[in-house]
Design brief:
Blueprint (H helix, E strand, L loop, with lengths): L1 E5 L15 E2 L15 E8 L9 E11 L9 E7 L2 E9 L4 E6 L3 E6 L18 E3 L2 E3 L15 E9 L2 E2 L5 E3 L1 E8 L2 E9 L15 E5 L6 E9 L11 E5 L4 E5 L3 E5 L4 E9 L2 E10 L4 E6 L4 E7 L3 E2 L1 H4 L7 E4 L2 E4 L6 E3 L16 E8 L5 E7 L2 E8 L6 E10 L4 E8 L2 E5 L2 E4 L4 E5 L6 E5 L2 E7 L5 E6 L1
């Protein structure tokens, strides 16, 4: 059973950030007040989603790392102070770790290992932390969905903050306000007023300005690309959702977007879907009750995107009898190349072919297993392929099993390509600057090879199914 419901405008408007942002210099710790011994400048940091890979760093600059310990647990406080501001930075959580960023040292946006949590609270990643009085918490604001990534991956937070206002006597006339908080590109909080300093703030008295504070007393965390600027007023949010009308050639509006939410079983939606500037016409998007989702192009045999969070906005597919037939993913999308995952190569150094020609790919539909997950079937260049994709019970990500028959001599599977692919243990790889993990059985003998200006992770098909997991 699915649920199609009307979702308020928070999820369809992210605002327009137009400020010229400046970067905090992370070649040294000179931008911060008396940094404690738990803070160091490094070039990169490695851990794993399960905490089983020993944390290591790469010497150099560009990343500030908190090596938390009970003896060294100081916060990192900037020398510069701000009032209104736009702030963005990337952060890496470690397994079970906890941190936060305080605007003006007073108003905290929480950073937390909230991976896989379905119903985020005011203490989860991206939340505005609560206030505290007389033994109870109040005023915390939870994200509308959880789009937090796994530990050991880089994530991005963007904040628009309006400082409290004071009159000539120093009396507060307006509360502080978070205009928006975006996590991994998704607006998860918008227009939240904070009546006073949040719990465990550094400075209990509200003032027009204050420093940024990165919390360092709850566990290891890393930051990079910390950028800030003036708060530029955005255009007003639309009260209605714009939909293109093919008959009158102008943008119509609808008050309530239609969103499909899987409730008791996976949902499979057939729509057109945007892929960059291209409109794909033969797409199935699959959403699970655990808010793991992907889109599959049956003309290419390709998983070309996946995401955590709410499933699919199908407003355009319902408008004007579905002329547009477009779906829009609701969560934090990671995009992959839209090309076949299997191919016949002359040798392991041969270039991977591009998109499949129309005559080369013959779709044979799909079958559902008892849990409602599809196995796609197709013929491609004399290969018969079964492509089973489901979501393991651990909810870590997507499991994909490729079974190939026919003339498999010279058959290979390309299970990843990106600008960077790094092995961190025998069966675990990081892809595209720690965007997601790939877990591959080492018995399949996966190997990384260079391709143009990037890299590919390849497995030679040896008459046994190839299974790998995408974890994020």
């Amino acid at each position: 059973m699915s649920r199609i419901f009307f979702l308020f405008s928070l999820l369809i408007w992210a605002g327009t950030v137009t400020a010229q942002l400046q970067s905090i210099d992370l070649t040294t710790l000179d931008a911060f007040r008396n940094p404690g011994k738990n803070w160091s400048i490094v070039a990169d940091v490695y851990t794993s989603y399960d905490g089983k890979v020993k944390t290591r760093n790469v010497s150099g600059t560009g990343v500030v790392m908190n090596y938390y310990s009970p003896k060294h647990e100081s916060d990192l406080i900037t020398k510069e102070e701000w009032g209104d501001m736009e702030l963005e930075f990337e952060f890496m959580m470690f397994k079970s770790s906890n941190s936060g960023v305080y605007l003006q040292g007073r108003y905290e946006v929480q950073l937390y290992d909230s991976w896989k949590k379905l119903n985020p609270a005011w203490y989860d990643a991206g939340a505005i932390y609560s206030r505290y009085n007389n033994g109870y918490s109040y005023e915390g604001t939870q994200p509308v969905m959880n789009v937090a990534k796994a530990p050991g991956l880089w994530q991005k937070l963007q904040i628009r903050f309006r400082a409290p206002r004071f009159n000539d006597k120093g009396e507060k006339t307006e509360n502080a306000r978070f205009e928006s908080v975006q996590l991994n590109g998704v607006t998860i909080i918008r227009e939240v007023e904070v009546s006073g300093c949040t719990r465990a703030c550094l400075f209990p008295e509200e003032k027009p300005t204050g420093p940024l504070v990165f919390q360092g007393d709850h566990g290891p965390v890393a930051f990079r690309n910390i950028r800030y600027g003036k708060l530029i007023p955005p255009p007003p949010p639309p009260e209605k959702r714009d939909i293109w009308d093919r008959n009158s050639h102008f943008w119509k509006t609808t008050v309530n977007p239609l969103v499909v939410i899987p409730v008791a079983k996976p949902e499979i939606i057939r729509t057109f879907l945007k892929y960059g500037d291209t409109t794909l016409t033969h797409v199935l998007s699959v959403g699970s009750v655990n808010e793991l989702n992907y889109s599959y192009d049956v003309k290419q045999g390709a998983v070309f995107q996946f995401w955590r969070g709410k499933f699919l906005d199908v407003t355009a597919a319902w408008w004007d009898r579905g002329w547009m037939q477009l779906g829009v993913p609701m969560g934090a999308v990671i995009t992959l190349p839209n090309t076949p995952v299997v191919a016949v190569l002359t040798n392991e150094n041969s270039a991977w072919p591009g998109a499949a020609a129309f005559d080369d790919m013959h779709n044979k539909g799909y079958v559902l297993d008892r849990n409602g997950f599809p196995t796609f079937k197709y013929s491609y260049n004399n290969l018969e392929v079964e492509d089973k994709i489901d979501f393991p019970g651990s909810h870590d990500g997507i499991s994909r099993t490729l079974t190939v028959t026919g003339n498999t001599a010279g058959a290979f599977c390309r299970i990843a390509n990106g600008k960077k692919i790094e092995k961190i243990k025998e069966d675990l790889f990081l892809v595209d600057d720690k965007s997601y993990y790939l877990q591959v059985d080492k018995k399949l003998k996966p190997f990384v090879r260079q391709s143009g200006d990037g890299y590919e992770l390849i497995v030679k098909y040896n008459d046994r199914p190839v299974t790998y997991n995408i974890i994020w």
